[in-house]
Design goal:
Length: 154
Amino acid sequence: MKEAIRLIRKEILALKFVASRLSDLKAAVTKVSDAVLTREESKKFEAALAELSAVSSEKEKFLQTNKKQDMEAYVKAQEDSNEREVAMRLLTQLKESERKLASESYVTKELLKRSSEFVDFRINVMAAAKADTTYGPPGKNASPVANKMFDANV
């Protein structure tokens, strides 16, 4: 049971570290003029993800050894004790950390998507790309599309 508690704590810390790095990455992305900072924060975020992956692999080996599907099933199968109560509280914390990270990840994904769309738009503006006309029957629109660099219409 001590090993399970150690692994749960380790995973909670790794998740919090990933969330912190994700927050730093999001802050760097919002600074439009600082690509170097964004690149550095991306590398740090990747390292945090690698650490979380290592913890997850360690947990999977533990679960395979104990022939359990997940950590909650392992803890629930143990006899009632103080350690079991501690493990159950830690599992609750773990689920909350996972939920917060998923929420933060979704927000950051949307921010990155919008940033990418903005960059495409700016490149099209600088390249003087012209959008398709919106009136007229299909095939009759005569506006040139050949010099359009990306899909964003200007």
